[in-house]
Amino acid sequence: MDWSRFQPSPLSVAPPPNQAQAALSAQLAILYAQALEISGTFNALSLPAKLPPEILSEIFLTHAARVQKDHLEHVLGQRGYAAKVQSYYKWIYVAHVCRHWREVALSCAEFKAYAVFESWTVPDYKLFDSHPFSWGPCPLTVVYHQNDHFTSTPRCPRCRDPRHVSSIALERMRGLVARHIKHFIIIIESDLNTLDLWKGLARRAAESLETLRIGLRGEAWTYHTEDRASMLIIPDKLFRSSTPQLRSLTTSYVSFSWTNTLLCPSLRHLEVTAHPGYHPSTDFADFISTLTTLTLLETLVLDCLPDMGPSIDAIADLPRLRLLQLSSRMGRITFLLSHLRLPPSTSVSIILDKNHRNPPTAFRAFGQEVSRLLRDAPPHTMSWSIPDSGFAGGFPPGVGDEGACLKVWGVTVAAPQELWVPSPDIAPRLSLKMRDTDDAICLLHHIPLAHLGALHVIGPMPSSEHWTRYFAAALDLHLLRVTGRVGYQLGTSLSRAVDHVGVAMPRLRALEFVNVRFPPPRHPDDFEDADECCCNDCEYSHHRWGKRGIDVRDLVRGLRGRRVQGALDVERISFVGCEHMKMSHMQPLLRGRSTVVFDGVVLNAEVSAGH
Question: Please, which domain of life does this record's source organism belong to (predicted)?
Answer without folding.
Answer: Eukaryota
